[in-house]
Amino acid sequence: MARTGLRPLLLALLGLAALTGGTHALAAGSDRTLPNLALPTLGGSQLWADLAYEGGWRVQRHVWTGHARLLDEDNVRRAWGSKAACLEALRDQAKVVEDQERPVVVVLHGLWRTRRSMSNLAGSFRGAGYEVIDVTYPSARASIEEHAAQVAGLLDRLSGTDREVSFVTHSLGALVTRQLLAREGDAWRGRHRVHRAVFIAPPNRGARLAEIGRKVPLLPWIYGEPMRQIAGGFTRDLAGPGVPFATIAGGCGDDEGWNPLIPGDDDGVVAVAETRLPGAAGELVVRRLHTTIMKDPAAIDAAVEFIRQGAFPTSGAAASGAAGR
Predict the structure, then answer these.
(1) What mean pLDDT, rounded, does the chain reach?
(2) DSSP3 helix / strand / coil % (the chain, rounded to 5)
(3) Which residues pair with 284 in a beta bridge?
(4) What is the DSSP letter of 287?
(5) Are 101 and 130 a contacting pair, CB within 8 Å?
(6) Tens of pLDDT along 127-174?
(7) Domain ranges of the chain
(8) Are the C-beta atoms of 125 and 153 separated by less than 8 Å?
(9) 89-107 residues labelled b (16+ CB within 10 A) or e (exposed)
(10) Rounded mean pLDDT of 244-261?
(11) Does 104-309 carry CATH code 3.40.50.1820?
C-alpha cells in the first residue's frame, strides 16, 4: 500500500519539477518581465550569478535555466524573466547611487561559499564610505575563467566614470580576480581605474589539499572545475594582479599548522606559503581557520586600511587571539 501511494506522489513531484524548469526556460527567452510576486529569497548561492548591480539591487541569472531575476537590497524578487528584461527593470526601478564617483570595492567569496560569508567585511567597507559590490557567483558550477568573465560583465555595467575599483577576496576569489585582471579588452577597464587588492587565504601558489582531494571519489564533482584547475597547476601560468596588493593568511604561527596533510603552517585548507605571491606590498598572518578568517577583526581592519592607504596598519595586532574554529 505504501509503495502504491508513493508512486503517484513521485510522479507528481517530477511533473512539477519539469513544469517549473520548462517555465523558467521559457522565461529566459521572453522579451519582457513576467507577472511577479514580491517573494523573499536567500539572495542566490551556487545556482545564481550576478549580472548587474546598482544601489543595492542586482540582476541574477540561473545557472541551469538561464532565466534572470531582479532582487532589491533586501533580497526580495521584484521582477523575473529574460536577462534583457530584468536589466531594463533594474534601470527603471533600482535606487540610483547618489554619488557615482564613490570608490568601489568588489568583494568575492570563496569556493562553495556565498556573499553572506563576507557580510562582516562588506559592512566594514560600507561604513568606511565605499560602494561595495558583494558578488554572488556559482563558484563550484563553472571554471575560473567563466567566473572572471561574469565579473567583467558586471563591471562593464558599473555606473559612473573614472571610479577607483578595488578587490577584496577570500580563497578562490583571489584567482578569479587575477584572471579578471589578466583579461584584455573589457569595457570597464577603459572607463574605471583598478586601485588595489587584498587577497584573504588565497591559494596563489595552488593548494596541496586540492591535489589530495582530486583523488577522492565524488570530491572533484562536488567542488567542480575550480578544484580541478587548482590541483592541476592553474596558478603556475596565472599572472599577478598588476596592481598594488596584499595577502592575509591564516595559520597557527608555527611550523605545523592546523592540518597534518599540509606542509608547514596553514589555515586547515591552504598553507601560508601557498598564499604568498611575489610583489606583495604587505603580508599578514592571523590565527584563524580558512572558513572564518574573513570574519576576523584584525583581518578586516587590515584589509580596509590597505585599500585606503596601500599598507597594513602599523599599530594593529598581527594576529587575533581566537582560534576561529
Answers:
(1) 88
(2) 40, 20, 40
(3) 248
(4) S
(5) no
(6) 999 999 999 999 999 999 999 999 999 999 998 899 999 999 999 999
(7) 2-93, 104-309
(8) no
(9) bbeeebeebeeeeebbbbb
(10) 96
(11) yes
